[in-house]
Every structure is written in structure tokens, then in C-alpha cells.
Write a structure and sequence with these properties.
Order of helices and strands of chain A: HHHHHHHHHHHHHH
Helix content of chain B: 25-40%
Bound molecules: zinc ion
Shape of chain A: globular
Distance between the termini of chain A: 52 Å
Largest sheet of chain A: none
Number of strands of chain A: 0
Strand content of chain B: 25-35%
Number of helices of chain B: 3
Radius of gyration of chain B: 18 Å
Mean pLDDT of chain B: 94
Distance between the termini of chain B: 59 Å
Low-confidence stretches of chain B: none
Number of domains of chain B: 2
Oligomer: heterodimer
Helix content of chain A: 40-55%
Mean pLDDT of chain A: 96
């Protein structure tokens, strides 16, 4: 009977809560005159990206769902639906999120989808909703395959993924400084995720966590928010457009143009798709590693500090 | 959740939030107080090619930059700024200033609001070899 298992569409149910929380954050900023910034067109683009993400998942969700159901038919394992199994699924799916997110920053093919989440120079609750339209094309659903094969029902896996995204909503704010120490130690927080959205050399490729920051601590990608290195939000090269279509597709077009350049070897063409963002066959662009090296050349005193 | 309700929530939510932001005066464009601010805005995008010369437009919303590599422009992206080189730019006069079309998918059109004499002089400055 577990083939018929269904969980609520938590990301849809959360929409009224998202709207209320955005209004509350805005009110807080306007009254207190601190704790973040809002700008009309930036927020509009973020919200349209969020709506488009929901639309894309309604339209294209059947692809990942079909893939998971094939795996579910193949696996002899079924862990059932007890609360303990759901909790374990949530933790393991968060580990899955960590790696998909890390690939999202280190493999240009996946970055092409994820880049739009980082394309705002703001950091407020609307930024959380600036989500991709092209996630399906990254094929990152493959990373979830082990969970289904281990016997977690696809509906449960997607339910946990939805809860994960809802958790990440509230951490997109400057209105909250630091949480209690024990909480900052285990959980992803506004402070940790601000670092993740930073374009400062120090903060590039750090804090990929979804819910539990322990993955970054385990895999060596954790960088704390430093008081004397204020986070500068956005992309290394910030966009010059608010057009949601351009925001959604620009990096895919960039890959297409790079791969089609005349005179490249097959390896170079593959590298334009799969190497870290900023890779180029002639060294004319900078990867995050090059940016960190350049920063250290200018600021040798930063060597050995977090992020370097 | 029924699709109609989701659509109404999303559409109503976006419209309401955007109207509120606009009415709160949060649509103002970034201003560059002085040449140093413009040079900093340029350096934020192109750290290893610093501005050698800065021409700030009179309303302080944009700046023409000269570097060792060529000419560029800093302009507002809402409350923030971004910058691009003017390589391959096409420049057209408009009623309120200039429109710059760039061969760049992430910055295809820049609308510069300039005073008439600036709009007259800037195209020559932009195209003059650095
Ligand atoms: Zn990211
Ligand atoms: Zn984020």
C-alpha cells in the first residue's frame, strides 16, 4: 500500500506564512531602521523567481517523480513510514542537500541552475524565494537515488526535501544576528547562511548546509561570519538586469556560448560544462580559488584565517 | 492545496508586497556621492583593473570609468550598482539621456538619465580610445 503514500505539499501550504513573514521582516526594518534592506525591483524579481520555481516543479516534477518510482519498483527494501524513519530520512536528505548544493557551486552545469539564488545583492526573506526554474535539467535527482534504494518512499523523501526548504526560508535575514551558541553549533542559521551568500573572497564556497551546519564542519567547508569582514551579497560579477528570464537562463546561455567556441578540444568543451564556475580554457577568467589567491596576494595577513 | 487558491495567494502576495515597497519609498535608485564611491563601485566588479579616471554624471546615479584596459560604466541596479566595460556598446540618444546596448545577456540595456549637455558629450567620451 505504500505506493499510494502521500504527504502534504508543504511548500505550497507555507505560502501564506512566507508572505506574512516577509511583511513582518519589512515592518521590523522600517520601524527599527536596521536589520536589512529591501528594494522594490529586487524583491519583485525574487518573488517572480519563487513563483516560477513552483510552476516549474508542477510542470516538470513528474520527471524526478517518475525516476524515483522506477527506483522504488526496483528496490526490495521498504523501511515503512514510522516517525523514526521520517526523522532519519530528513537527516539523510539534508546530507543529500549538502552535496547537491556543493555540486551546485563547484560544477558549472549545476551552478547554471543555482546561480539565480545568489543573483540578488540583497539578503532578506524574499531572497530565500529566489529559486531556480531549471533544477530538473541539472539531473541532481540522481543524488537522491540511494535514499529511495535504501527503502525510503519517494513521497517521504520529497516531503523531507520540502521541509528542508521551508527551514531555509527564515535564515535569509539580516534581522537576526546570532542564535544561542549550541544552536549555531548544530543548525544552519542566518549568520552561517549570510556567509554562504557572500561574494567576499573569504566567503566563497562556504557553508553549503541546508538544515544542519554539521555537514560543513565535517567536510571542511565551514566558515564563520566575521565581524570585521562584513558580508557583501551577490555574485562575483553582479547582474545588470532584473528580467526574470535573463536571471533564470543566463548561465545556461553562457555555457552554450563557451562550448560552441571554435577551435576547442573535446576536453575543453566538457570543462566549460563541468569545471567549477569561472574556469576558462585560456585562463581569462577567475575561479573562486583564483579569487582567493589574488586576495591573499593583496592581503597576505589574511592567510590562515577562516576561508583562506 | 487547490491550484486556484495557490495562484491567488501568489499573485496577490507579490502584488501587495511590491506595491507596499514602492509606497514605502524603497524604489529609489542608488546614488554615488562622489568619484571615490564610483571608483569603489567599479572595483567591486573589476578589482584588478582599477579606475584611473571617473566622470560622475550630474545627478550622481552613474559614472563613466577609464581604466588601463578601456572604458566602462557604473550604473544603478535598484539600490545597488553594477558595472560593465563598454566593449561593443551601441549608444543611442533618448528623451531622458542615453541608452547603451551591450553584447551581454546579463546587462543588455542600460538607460542613463543624463542632462542634455551630458547626453551630447558622453557618447564621444565613451568611444574615445582610452
Ligand atoms: Zn548556494
Ligand atoms: Zn540562500
Amino acid at each position: 500500500m505504500t505506493d499510494m503514500l502521500s504527504y502534504p505539499e508543504v511548500t505550497h501550504i507555507a505560502v501564506p506564512f512566507f508572505i506574512a513573514a516577509i511583511l513582518a521582516e519589512l515592518l521590523w526594518i522600517v520601524i527599527k531602521r536596521r536589520g536589512g534592506r529591501y528594494e522594490t525591483r529586487d524583491a519583485l524579481t525574487s518573488l517572480i523567481m519563487g513563483a516560477g520555481n513552483v510552476a516549474a516543479s508542477i510542470l516538470l516534477g513528474f520527471i524526478a517523480w517518475g525516476f524515483f518510482m522506477v527506483l522504488w519498483a526496483l528496490t526490495p527494501l521498504d523501511l515503512g513510514t514510522s516517525l523514526g524513519v521520517v526523522a532519519l530520512c530528513f537527516v539523510l536528505d539534508d546530507l543529500r542537500y549538502y552535496w547537491v548544493h556543493r555540486f551546485g557551486h563547484r560544477i558549472r552545469w549545476v551552478w547554471a541552475s543555482h546561480v539565480n539564488h545568489h543573483s540578488s545583492q540583497h539578503y532578506n526573506l524574499t531572497t530565500a524565494l529566489r529559486q531556480t526554474w531549471t533544477g530538473t535539467f541539472t539531473l541532481m535527482m540522481i543524488v537522491r537515488a540511494p535514499l529511495v534504494l535504501l527503502g525510503f518512499h519517494p513521497a517521504m523523501v520529497l516531503f523531507c526535501g520540502g521541509l528542508n526548504l521551508i527551514y531555509q526560508f527564515w535564515i535569509h535575514t539580516e534581522a537576526i544576528g546570532k542564535m544561542p551558541k549550541w544552536f549555531e553549533a548544530v543548525m544552519n542559521t542566518p549568520s552561517h547562511h549570510r556567509v554562504h551568500h557572500g561574494r567576499n573572497a573569504r566567503y566563497l564556497d562556504a557553508n553549503y548546509a541546508g538544515v544542519f551546519i554539521i555537514w560543513d564542519r565535517m567536510f571542511g567547508t565551514f566558515v564563520p561570519e566575521l565581524e570585521d569582514d562584513k558580508v557583501d551579497y551577490g555574485l562575483v560579477h553582479n547582474l545588470g538586469t532584473f528580467n526574470p528570464l535573463r536571471v533564470a537562463f543566463h548561465e545556461w546561455l553562457g555555457i552554450f556560448r563557451d562550448v560552441r567556441q571554435p577551435g576547442l578540444s573535446l576536453r575543453q568543451r566538457l570543462m566549460y560544462m563541468l569545471a567549477p564556475p569561472g574556469w576558462s580554457h585560456d585562463g581569462s577568467r577567475d575561479t573562486s580559488r583564483a579569487i582567493k589567491h589574488k586576495h591573499l596576494a593583496q592581503n597576505p595577513q589574511d592567510a590562515g584565517t577562516p576561508g583562506f | 492545496m487547490a491550484l486556484e487558491i495557490l495562484l491567488i495567494l501568489v499573485f496577490g502576495g507579490i502584488t501587495g508586497i511590491v506595491l507596499l515597497l514602492h509606497m514605502l519609498g524603497l524604489s529609489a535608485r542608488a546614488t554615488l556621492p562622489d568619484g571615490a564611491a564610483a571608483a569603489k563601485a567599479w572595483a567591486d566588479e573589476f578589482a584588478d583593473d582599477p579606475a584611473l579616471e571617473v566622470i560622475l554624471c550630474r545627478d550622481h546615479h552613474a559614472a563613466l570609468i577609464t581604466t588601463a584596459r578601456g572604458r566602462g560604466i557604473v550604473w544603478p541596479m535598484g539600490a545597488d550598482t553594477t558595472a560593465r566595460y563598454l566593449t561593443g556598446a551601441r549608444i543611442y540618444p533618448t528623451k531622458t539621456g542615453l541608452r547603451i546596448d551591450l553584447p551581454d545577456f546579463t546587462a543588455p540595456h542600460i538607460d542613463l538619465r543624463l542632462e542634455p549637455d551630458e547626453a551630447r558629450d558622453w557618447p564621444d567620451l565613451m568611444e574615445k580610445p582610452a
